[in-house]
Amino acid sequence: MSEADIQELVQAYPGSLPVAEIDPMFANPVPICRELNTSAGPIDNFLVTPSGLPVLVECKLWRNPEGRREVVGQILDYAKELSRWSSSDLQREVSIRLKRREGNPLLELVRAAHPEVDEMEFNDALTLNLRRGRFLLLIVGDGIRAGVEAIAEYLQAHAGLHFSLGLVEMPIYVMPDGQRLVVPRVLAKTAIITRNVVSVPEGTSLPMMRKPNHESTLLERRLWGRSAFCSGPSSCSSCSLTIRSR
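Request: output the structure for the sequence above.
Response:
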């Protein structure tokens, strides 16, 4: 098996990816294209859900030393690049990759699987998810090395992530009749960590809060005991709270 073989498998049988086990919001993605070009390099497989959530897949043979050292950073670079795109940028690159000069092949492929998709709602959601970096990043290989798994666990421990990351082992067995048997399993996945963001005009002070009680919100309890005034951007990493000026 080669990395190209794994790409072909993902493109032809997206249901072989255990997406729902990693993040149910990304269930039933539609395969769009392989080798989608970005300034950070080509994405092996690009898929998208009917709700406009992008799925990026990087395929690696784990006997390849690069698969152990660089694959996580590589797929994060792709995500960082896509976060600068709009739905129009993505549609343009998909059209170039599929060699389609007319129409919107991205939307057409999604509608072929889900005819009920509304064009305006899909494009708006896709643009919003791109800008927020709301992706599912999948690293798929024939075997996962402990070093890469440790990197994924490190990412899981850090706040501020807007994407889900999953490590998927996809061993492929050739049966006596020549057919292939795929047995995917999830080895590691990140948890989504949402940050509360409070925006105030620059130079504006935040009033002292009352002492929280049993009726207080989680945000109020987290703010209590922190600095009562904000004269500029500041961040509290311990409670994943960011206060920024605008």
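Residues 157-161, 225-246 have pLDDT under 50 and may be disordered.
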